[in-house]
Amino acid sequence: VVLVHPQIPQNTGNVARTCAATAAPLHLVGPLGFQLDDRKLKRAGLDYWDAVAVNTHSSWDAFFAFFQQLPNPKRLVAFTVYGDKYYAGPEFSYQPGDWLVFGAETSGLPPKAHSDVLASGGCLVKIPIRDMHVRSINLSVAVGVGLFEAIRQLD
Q1: Are 113 and 123 in contact (CB under 8 A)?
Q2: pLDDT given at position 2
Q3: Where are the alpha helices (DSSP H) in the chain?
Q4: Which among 59, 92, 133, 137 would be 20 to 30 A from 82, CA to CA?
Q5: Judging by beta carbons within 10 Å of its beta carbon (0-12, 13-18, 19+), is residue 31 exposed, middle or buried?
Q6: Are the beta carbons of 8 and 39 closer than 8 angstroms?
């Protein structure tokens, strides 16, 4: 799970707890909207922080350079309102080596992340939102939805 510029410590703490429950590594891409020693972050993650493999990257460019150096199989799957496939639709399947990428609560993924994901052979997916008055769903909910669908398909 990759969080790009997360802003709300409680969301990141909840994502960390989900990562602990699924043994999924967590990558935090700066700038972050909080300090890693924030008590709200720690409280939302409860006692599970020791069970999470957390990696931090100073910027999207630093993360993307790190990702490109990794061996295959690997693919970035970015969750965004600009996705052209549904995250769990018949037109999309998760693959071993997928990295699930999520943007900031306030602004989503930066345009460069969209283009880098596509240029690297990754894809943009979306979670359907039925009510036009709702811009987005909570970041930690989106991570849970995407991660557990990936686990369902791959397990």
Answers
A1: no
A2: 98
A3: 9-22, 39-45, 60-68, 111-119, 139-154
A4: 59
A5: exposed
A6: no
Say whether domain 2-154 belongs to CATH 3.40.1280.10: yes
**DSSP letter, residue 36:** T
Structure tokens at 83: 């996705």
Q: So where are the chain's domains?
A: 2-154
Q: Whose CA is closest to 89, among 134, 127, 48?
A: 127
Q: What is the pLDDT of residues 33-74, one digit of tens each?
A: 988 875 766 665 567 778 899 999 999 999 999 999 999 999
- Type of residue at 114: H
Read off the DSSP letter of residue 71. Answer: P
Which tokens sit at 45? 């993650």
